[in-house]
Amino acid sequence: MKLLQAKLARYDAPQKAKALGVYPYFREIESDQDTEVIINGKKVLMFGSNSYLGLTNHPKIKEAAIAAIKKYGTGCAGSRFLNGTLDIHVELEKRLARFVGKEEAIIYSTGFQVNLGVISCLTGREDYIIWDELDHASIIEGRRLSFSTQLKFKHNDMTSLEKVLKSCPEDKVKLIVVDGVFSMEGDVANLPEIVALAKKYNAAVYVDEAHGIGVFGKQGRGTCDHFGVAQDVDLIMGTFSKSFASLGGFVATDSITANYLRHNSRSYIFSASITPASTAAVSAALDIMESEPERIEHLWEMTHYALDGFRNMGCEIGNTSTPIIPLFIRDNNKTFRITRELFDEGVFVNPVVSPAVPSDSTLIRFSLMATHTKEQLDFALDKIQKCFKRYDLLK
User: Is residue 367 flagged as an active site residue?
Assistant: First the structure.
């Protein structure tokens, strides 16, 4: 065995979990991504999806994707920078810019590539990136690629943020990067205070709306719209893999910043452009988002119903106020076992364990869609209550 393989062979955590029968990853779904999925021929209720509006199998979206393939083919065979720009790319960018209230938008091939390519190139060696300690992994990877000084502040702690801002030279560029909705904990960034501090210390603000668009704001425009600060936030990032029921991502900003990114963001310039089908699917999803507000209303009805249910049964759910509900277990092995037991009972949830979170902060991530029903929630709540009671996890 070569040295590389010998080193990698020491990583055996997956093998151990498989031997115990609790390995929870790469479960093969044999159906569409809906509130109910089929795995190994068995129907399971899906509470692990990011499809907040439940649009992944909407007939209008599927029809739009098929029509785009018929007209444009299956791919663009190049980057947007060279031969991979379609008219539907440009049309969608204009719609997205209007939707979130910015001058321009730029589409990337994935949401991860947005954060990777934008955050890494916006600031230079003498500048500062200031980030929340619970920011998404894609934000962390983006700032790691930057040559700027990187300063962390305590999660959603405005005193900590101001202390960091005070430590930066007044005449240097400062970029504050936060999630609008934090993807594991489900809590919301204090954007009004962040914007106020940014103005006080002449900093720019970048908000990742991956889990906010389709959930918050008028017609699902996100947390920036919800708090009325869209005009004060310099860059708004979004992904297509959640509420938009597709694949890809975008960043919306002013024309000056957009021009710079189009010619300097490596993950944009050196990646093949988003496929015609994905582009058309996003556009169709945007149509539905703008014309069917009842979807978002039902999502929030289900969210409040679930939050009340978990609180009443005594689950520890932290500070969430969104369709992302963390059920804290605070033990790696228990988290794996409970995930497996719930799956056997017909409830699909996602485990979040170390090193993604500290070993004493492990949790199950319970996610809601606008297409869930109260009957489905009642079933899941009952199974979770019985399971958590066996593990003495209820207060």
Answer: no
Confidence bin at 237 (pLDDT 50/70/90): very high
Task: Single out the catalytic residue among 58, 89, 136, 211.
Answer: 211
| Torsion angle defined by CA atoms of residues 325, 326, 329 and 332, in that order, rounded to the nearest 10 degrees | 130
* CA angle at 317 for the pair 312 and 379, rounded to the nearest 5°: 55
The question of whether 16 is a catalytic residue gets the answer no
Spot the catalytic one: 226, 242, 298, 372: 242
Q: On the CB side of 67, how many CA atoms lie within 13 Å of its CA?
A: 12
Task: Give tens-digit pLDDT for 73-90.
Answer: 999 999 999 999 999 999
Q: Is 152 an annotated catalytic residue?
A: no
**Rounded Cα–Cα distance for residues 54 and 296 (Å):** 10
The one catalytic residue in 146, 183, 265, 283 is: 183
- Encode 364-391: b = buried (16+ Cβ within 10 Å), e = exposed: bbbbbbbbbeeebbeebbebbbebbeee
**Burial profile 215-241: b = 16 or more Cβ within 10 angstroms, e = fewer:** bbbeebbbbbbbbebbebbbbbbbbbb
The pLDDT tens digits of the residues spanning 384-395 come to 999 999 999 998
Structure tokens at 13: 């955590």
Query: pTM for this structure?
Result: 0.96
Q: DSSP label at 239?
A: E
Give bridge partners of residue 253 from the DSSP assignment: 104
Cα 329 to Cα 95: distance, rounded to the nearest angstrom: 42
Cβ atoms < 10 Å from Cβ of 77: 11
Residue pair 360/377 in contact by the 8 Å Cβ criterion: no
